[in-house]
Amino acid sequence: MRVVILNNDFRVYWKGRLVYLRGYLATQGIELNALELFGKGSPYAFDTVNSAHNWWGCLYPDKSAVDIQKQELKKDLFAQLDKLVPDVIIGPSIVFFAGALGIAWAKKNKKKFIMFDDARPAQVKRNAVVQWVKNLITISADALWLPTKSYDTDYAMFRAQGVHFFYGFACIDNDLFKTDREAHIVDKIIVCVARLVPIKNLHGLLQAWYDIEQQDTGYRLMIIGNGPEEELLKDDVQRMGLTSVLFIDAVSNDELPAYFGGAEAFILPSFSETWGLVVNEAMASGLPVLLSRTVNAANDLLVEGVNGFGFDAFNTQDIAKAILRYTELPGEEKRLMSEKSLEMIDNMSYQKMGFQLKDALQHVAVKPYRKPDLVAAVIIGRWHGRYNTAGWDKL
């Protein structure tokens, strides 16, 4: 079986997943190829396009989505897929170019299509017509690859139409982040790793931290990342007279474990996160987690009082309360929280991702071709997707 996985770009977290899946699926008689559309324009601009593997290509390594006409993109992508002739295409939500054109090629050639998505529909602002179009096309997919079973209720209408569900792609290389915490000098640091953009709610975090400093806890707040709000956030620190806040520029995944290893806990105060893979990284490092309840990962990876605490991102007093609940714990309870984070994140690993994808591919391979109805077929043929990331930075 030959499989092609498409995305507008494969940066940061996808890189390790793809390398693992390529090797694992090969042992199961499945050939995986990866194709990303654009080398420029990623929200993760600090990361570079892959060039190390001959099974992993980029259609336009020196261009972004705004540089390419949609018809040209469709022609070039279809030509590349015609050469690869996959049995199954895996792609993102059909609102994006890679998903829309991936399912269009699959339906044209009577092949199978699997869609991965980590956004809950209620989190995404769409008008009724756009949502109707997305639903109509998605029903024609053979399978949905979701982060966890907690997403089932959000996508129930597709299961009712016979779309197969499986899980597990919201994972990271846990082994990369695991450290011997007893061998490290752990400071009284609560670390936050995030892009410095409005949706991450770092202004709210700093307001909450003002209350923490009034309690003289001895803890410091370390914020790792960069972005357009950097100067505004530093102005907040000066205006409030905060003395225990440290900013660190964005670091690579290879460097991040050292920062986690020296911290005591992790906090993510975002107003919204489709998942929040940095939570996986923190837990794989053995950190208790303090999470906004609007971070989707919190639904599956946070057990209140067991491996951390949740809070209302829109209430700075609630953020401060969660931080203080953690800082006031006895040392033994903090250690137990650390152990629970490690234990829980083992349920979301590359290995489990590979098993579930292999089973899903074998499942859809023997199922009959899902022919879209007439209206869906017309829309699939004409819809090219888009690449609008404006909503990624603001609520």
Automatic annotation (TrEMBL):
Transmembrane regions: 88-106
A Gene Ontology molecular function term of the record: glycosyltransferase activity
Alphabetical UniProt keywords: Membrane, Transferase, Transmembrane, Transmembrane helix
Ranges of residues in domain Glycosyl transferase family: 187-336
Cross-referenced InterPro entries: Glyco_trans_1 (IPR001296), Glycosyltransferase_grp1 (IPR050194)
Protein name: Glycosyltransferase
